[in-house]
Amino acid sequence: MAPDPLRLDPATFQLPVGRLRAGYYSDAYFNSTKELLEAEDRHPRVMMQVFQKHDTLLGGVDEAIAVLKVGAGHVGDDGVWVPAWDDLVVHALHEGDVVAPNETVMTIEGDYAQFAHLETVYLGTMARRSLIMRNVRDVVSAARGKEILYFPARHDHWLVQTGDGWAAHVAGAIGVSTDAQASWWGGRGVGTVPHALIAAYGGDTVEAARAFSHRYGDRINVTVLVDFENDSARTAVEVADALADELWGVRLDTSERLVDEALADLGEDAPRGVNVELARRVRQALDAAGHQRVRIVVSGGFDAAKIRSFEEQDAPVDAYGVGSSLLRGQNDFTADIVKVDGEPRAKVGRGERPNPRLQLVT
Asked: Of 331, 322, 330, 307, which Cα lies nearest the Cα of 152?
């Protein structure tokens, strides 16, 4: 099948085609429904309507369409798969479209026996990716144009990285941390000099940063974690002095249980973790040492509310690294048959909701 130029090529997703067709990832009752309809030679032509209940961005729709393209059909009398995509009529919105609660985002028309087994997969795909998009959109909005770095890879199963990274990218994240997350648009993962490398250099942040910059400085923006000794302002200046123009930025990631040494003069009232006052003191220290061009990245427990608070206080922050908060919440999708053989047959309260924004999928 020829790829739709307005959508991701189905080959992008590397789908387990055989298992999709066999219903391996589908709720058992959908597989039973398909089997029964085929055994009874019953082939109702339906319209399936897909929606969700939040103000959100639509993610995963191209992957959902790919599932239909490769997975719709049946096993013929000769045991060979007979594809049915060409017999379906699918209309859908696009990746990243803003959608309202209960707005129809996709319709599927055709012989229900050909695609009944795929509902679990295409709904789950859109639920996951739309959740990521909505959460990333919220932190991007809170950051008021400052960069958002998407850092949740370590908080979830590795198999979700590719599509989640794409969703984050569409929603406005400026960088992702793994090559897998960047693979669908041909990018690369970005990162900083990690605590583990500093430890491997005997706890010497400057030496670890020098080695890192020497090897990778011509490929990436060198950013260094400066909280290893819990003295971020001092360490930031030492790293900036050592790397000079090779240093792009420093990253603050102080534990929420600790008061950074830069705030020790504030006594018992000193704020813990990464906070606005710490960012200000690191900025002041860098500027006083002549390193005005060095950027400050903050991470550690950031969500939209915390970013918004930093921005309202005019924190001297250039980028926010956001992790596990981007995986939280829900954005469930539902599919309903609303027509059978051209006649209304919807569950009570779930009638057809036409949407002129839907586009025919080729």
From this structure: 322
Kindly state the DSSP code that residue 22 receives in the 8-state scheme.
T
Helices (H), the chain: 17-21, 28-39, 61-71, 119-142, 161-171, 179-182, 195-200, 205-216, 232-243, 276-288, 304-312
Burial group, residue 244, by CB count within 10 angstroms (0-12, 13-18, 19+): exposed
Render pLDDT for 114-162 as a digit per residue (tens, 0 to 9).
999 999 999 999 999 999 999 999 999 999 999 999 999 999 999 999 9
349, burial (CB in 10 Å: exposed 0-12, middle 13-18, buried 19+): exposed
SS3 at position 216: helix
> Tens digit of pLDDT for each residue in 34-89?
999 999 999 999 999 999 999 999 999 999 999 999 999 999 999 999 999 999 99
Residue with tokens 């908080």, as numbered in its chain: 155
**Separation between Cα atoms, residue 195 and residue 205, nearest integer Å:** 9
The total of other beta-carbon atoms located within 10 Å of residue 25's CB is: 15
d(CA 292, CA 285): 9
